[in-house]
């Protein structure tokens, strides 16, 4: 592979030393800055009582605080609070790992408390990010998750009436706006990972742009991990821009001399070569396109390592994708295996979709393998078919992936494509999802929000008129809109379902035809196909083991009933962990 050295971000070699100096500052300087930093932050720095629990801070809090003050974003706290006080909308650019997702919402809580009792909302494009960040921030604030700090995702609301800071998926905030168009319960709203330009985030930006015009007390912070923030500034009427550098080290970029015919095979081969040949300690992050590829890669990597014998160090392979249950997703934060008896380095390799590009930060990663592909949703309005296609990533995504390698020490990124392809064939930024998606659900939600003039709605990137017309035709056909384009009573009910309009209409109509149970099952299978397949596997395994248990007991005396039953329970429990933790019990 050819290589060239690039600086992915600013190097922070003396940051820890600086953090220790900040931790030892006197309480008098803390009091002097309390006005700028907020009362809660000031009390934290003074080491006093926790204002949320009215108890002394725990030892865990002080341990985390020493780490927090070493984050790059921490030294910008005063500047951020000044901007927040003086401007209604702020655009903030901070690389992944700078601390913007965990620290800035806490500062906004300080601001919200000083202004009244309203809360703070921080949106995330993915469920795993909303849950994991909420857990981390609750520990940093030394409170219980679900009380002062909570999260809200589809089918799960871990919050309470006294929640001050709520992390949620962008779709959940959009649903809250449908019942509360002015979002009166929030003092500050943060749109995190705005550069991903998800469908819900784009709609939220248009909705919130109008809301802040009508609510002068509401503050909006748009946070992005890419440097292309000019478009966000222009969209939000030349909002002030704040740049926060990332805490990254130099990263060497390696390219292949020729295009790879099989990127999956090349990626697996690269993992094995890194594990065997690299003398630097550090974990591996490999990007693939989806669950099927990831599971296949993990199996093959384990098989290859087992075939190499015990002379090499242990390699722990951990999958990561959005449909993986939360308890299994947390495995990515487990430590790497220790060196073996002969001193061979132990590593972990996280095999992930693009969820690990920006939403999650995995410390300890030194090597990144980037095949240059990701799955993207594509919609054809003429045949009304939406599909996931494996497509080349953008230059911005490639840079984000490379940056994962330089979090704790100098790293290496192995790009399984040529440098020519990177420079000449890749787009600068990912195509916004709103330009390649079915807009039926979007139009229904906008109508529910009271936005009737869709043609003049302030989209950051307006979708094609043909796509909008097809969506309006579909909703009219489903009787969600009347002939004048107005929302019907049926359409208002349909908008409450987190489903495609066709499935929502099918569920509602099933009541009239006395087939609700059957339609519920069909809808579940159509909307959550993967989980239904796994559930079918669990039931099938149970059926056949129960069916053939007498034969097993007769033919194999070593497998008595208790051993067989224990084996079945172990198999089904493992399968059920993949179906959102549902457990089945044999009667």
> At CATH's second level, what is the architecture of the largest domain?
3-Layer(aba) Sandwich
- Main sheet makeup: 8 strands, mixed
* Main structural class: alpha/beta
Question: What's the CATH C level of the largest domain?
Answer: Alpha Beta
- By DSSP, the count of extended strands is 17
Which blocks of ≥5 consecutive residues have pLDDT under 50?
A: 3-36, 552-565, 574-587
The first-to-last residue Cα distance is 59 Å
| Rg estimate, integer Å | 26 Å
Beta content comes to: 15-25%
What is the helix content?
Answer: 40-55%
Strand order of the largest sheet: 5-4-6-3-7-8-2-9
What is the assigned CATH homologous superfamily of the largest domain? P-loop containing nucleotide triphosphate hydrolases
Number of domains: 4
Specify the overall morphology.
globular
What's the quick description here?
With 587 residues, this protein is α/β, with parallel strands linked by helices.
How does this structure look, described?
The chain has 587 residues and is of the alpha/beta class. The chain folds into 4 domains: 243 residues, P-loop containing nucleotide triphosphate hydrolases (Rossmann fold, 3-Layer(aba) Sandwich); 183 residues, Rossmann fold (3-Layer(aba) Sandwich), CATH 3.40.50.300; 89 residues, Four Helix Bundle (Hemerythrin (Met), subunit A); 49 residues. It contains 24 helices and 17 strands. An 8-stranded mixed sheet has the order 5-4-6-3-7-8-2-9, sandwiched between helices. Strands 1-10-17-14-11-13-12 form a 7-stranded mixed sheet, with helices on both faces. A hairpin with a 4-residue loop joins strand 15 and strand 16. Helix 6 packs across helix 7, helix 18 packs across helix 19 and helix 23 runs antiparallel to helix 24. The termini are far apart.
């Amino acid at each position: 592979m050819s290589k060239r050295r690039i600086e992915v971000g600013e190097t922070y070699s003396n940051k820890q030393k600086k953090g220790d100096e900040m931790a030892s500052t006197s309480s008098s300087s803390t009091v002097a800055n309390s006005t700028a930093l907020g009362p809660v932050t000031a009390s934290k720095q003074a080491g006093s009582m926790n204002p949320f629990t009215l108890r002394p801070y725990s030892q865990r809090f002080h341990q985390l605080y020493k780490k927090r003050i070493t984050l790059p974003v921490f030294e910008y706290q005063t500047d951020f609070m000044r901007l927040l006080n003086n401007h209604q909308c702020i655009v903030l650019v901070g690389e992944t790992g700078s601390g913007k997702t965990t620290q800035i919402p806490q500062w906004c809580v300080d601001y919200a408390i000083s202004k009244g009792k309203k809360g703070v909302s921080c949106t995330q494009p993915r469920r795993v990010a909303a849950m994991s960040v909420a857990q981390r921030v609750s520990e940093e604030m030394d409170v219980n998750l679900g009380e002062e700090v909570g999260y809200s995702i589809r089918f799960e609301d871990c919050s309470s009436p006294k929640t001050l800071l709520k992390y949620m998926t962008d779709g959940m905030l959009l649903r809250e706006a449908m019942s509360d168009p002015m979002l009166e319960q929030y003092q500050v709203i943060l749109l995190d990972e705005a550069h991903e330009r998800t469908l819900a985030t784009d709609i939220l930006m248009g909705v919130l742009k109008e809301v802040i015009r009508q609510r002068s007390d509401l503050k909006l912070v748009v946070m992005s991990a890419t440097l292309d923030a000019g478009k966000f500034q222009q969209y939000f009427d030349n909002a002030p821009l704040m740049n926060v550098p990332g805490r990254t080290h130099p990263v060497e970029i390696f390219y292949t001399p020729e295009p790879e015919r099989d990127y999956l095979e090349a990626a697996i081969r690269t993992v094995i070569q890194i594990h065997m040949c690299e003398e630097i300690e550090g974990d591996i992050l490999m990007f693939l396109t989806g669950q099927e590829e990831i599971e296949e890669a993990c199996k093959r990597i384990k098989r290859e390592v087992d075939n190499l014998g015990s002379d090499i160090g242990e390699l722990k392979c951990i999958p990561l994708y959005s449909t993986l249950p939360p308890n299994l997703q947390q495995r990515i934060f487990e430590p790497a295996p220790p060196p073996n008896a002969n001193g061979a380095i132990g590593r972990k390799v996280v095999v992930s979709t693009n969820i690990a590009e920006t939403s999650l930060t995995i410390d300890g990663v030194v090597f990144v393998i980037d095949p240059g592909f990701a799955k993207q949703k594509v919609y054809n309005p003429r045949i009304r078919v939406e599909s996931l296609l494996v497509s080349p990533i953008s230059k911005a995504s490639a840079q984000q992936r490379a940056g994962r390698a330089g979090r704790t020490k100098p790293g290496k990124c192995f790009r399984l494509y040529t440098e020519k392809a990177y420079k000449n064939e890749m787009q600068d930024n990912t195509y916004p999802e709103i330009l390649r998606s079915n807009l039926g659900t979007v139009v229904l939600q906008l109508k529910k929000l009271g936005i009737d003039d869709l043609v003049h709605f302030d989209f950051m990137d307006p979708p094609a008129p043909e796509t909008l017309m097809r969506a309006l035709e579909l909703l009219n056909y489903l009787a969600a809109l009347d002939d004048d384009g107005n929302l019907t009573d049926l359409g208002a009910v349909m908008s409450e379902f987190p489903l495609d309009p066709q499935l929502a209409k099918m569920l509602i109509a099933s009541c009239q035809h006395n087939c609700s149970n059957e339609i519920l099952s069909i809808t579940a299978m159509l909307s959550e196909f993967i989980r239904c397949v796994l559930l079918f596997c669990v039931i099938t395994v149970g059926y056949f083991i129960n069916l053939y248990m007498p034969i097993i007991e007769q033919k194999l005396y070593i497998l008595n009933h208790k051993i067989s039953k224990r084996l079945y329970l172990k198999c089904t429990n493992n399968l059920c962990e993949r179906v959102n933790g549902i457990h089945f019990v044999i009667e």
